[in-house]
Design a protein that fits this description.
Blueprint (H helix, E strand, L loop, with lengths): L2 E6 L20 E7 L3 H11 L12 E5 L7
Antiparallel strand pairs: 1-2, 1-3
Length: about 70
Amino acid sequence: MPTYIFLSPDGYTFSPSATSATPDIDNLQVLGLASGQNERKALLALYRENPYLEGKGYERIIAVEVKGDWVYL
């Protein structure tokens, strides 16, 4: 079964040196990894395995299929 990484542009991020109450970094947040027959089934598995994601307001979710092995540095 393919594995997908789920990302979202929703939410806010501050740099470590931020001095303002306004977010200063535009990036994607990693929601997690999950496997499934397709993106939709993998997303359902992600929510099932991580119930704290429910109701957090993520409306735009990007699924990218992971190819190959992970390399940890």
